Structures are given as C-alpha cells and as structure tokens.
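From the shared-data thread, chain only:
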Amino acid sequence: MSSMGRTFIKDRVSARKAKRGADHIRITELAALVEQLAQALEDASPDHQLASNARQYLLQTNLINQD
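Structure, as tokens:
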C-alpha cells in the first residue's frame, strides 16, 4: 500500500474517532439536561411520575451515576 493510501486510512480512522467523541459529548450533555428536567419536575411535585421515569431511564442506560 502506498504511503498516500496509508495516510488516507489513518485520516479516516481519526475522523471516526473524533465523531464518536463528539457523539459521546452530545449524549453526556443530553443526559445532564434530562437530569435537570427530572430534578425540576421533582422539585415542582416530588411524586411526579415523569421525573421518576426520566431518572429511572437514565440509570438503566448508565447515562448518570447512581447516588
């Protein structure tokens, strides 16, 4: 394989790794927003089922840590 071909492959791999990193950051940010929403709903009404469901979903998908 030519050096140009190897460089092309390395660039593609680097681009994929960067995209996965960016996706992880977006997922982390989304999880934080959902957690804030769940907390706001819980503060408004501590027994609100939507807040409980949102928090349970995040825990099940490991998007937030269990306290």
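The mean pLDDT is 73.
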